[in-house]
Write a structure and sequence with these properties.
With 82 residues, the protein is mainly alpha-helical. The protein is elongated. The N and C termini lie far apart (37 Å).
Length: 82
C-alpha cells in the first residue's frame, strides 16, 4: 500500500510540471504550499533512511526521495517563472 501511495503521489505532480513547462506560467500556483510540502517530505527523509538502516522501508525511501525531487522541481519552476 505504501508503494502504491508513494507512486501515486509522485505521479500526481507530473501533469503540473508539464503544464508549467509548456505555459511558463505559475501565477495561480501557491509558492508557500509547495515549499511546505518540500519541507515536510525533506523532514521524512531521515526517517526513511533510518527505516532502511534497520532493515525495512526501502520502497518508502525511494518514493520519498523521488517525491522530494519532484516537489523541488516545482519550487524551482515557480521561482524561475514568477
Amino acid at each position: 500500500m505504501q508503494l502504491a501511495g508513494g507512486i501515486i503521489l509522485c505521479i500526481g505532480y507530473i501533469p503540473q510540471i508539464i503544464q508549467t513547462l509548456k505555459t511558463k506560467s505559475v501565477k495561480d500556483l501557491n509558492f508557500s504550499m509547495f515549499v511546505l510540502v518540500f519541507i515536510g517530505v525533506l523532514f521524512m527523509e531521515p526517517y526513511a533512511i533510518n527505516l532502511v538502516i534497520n532493515g525495512s522501508g526501502m520502497m518508502f525511501l525511494i518514493t520519498n526521495s523521488i517525491n522530494l525531487l519532484i516537489v523541488g522541481i516545482m519550487v524551482v519552476l515557480i521561482k524561475l517563472y514568477k
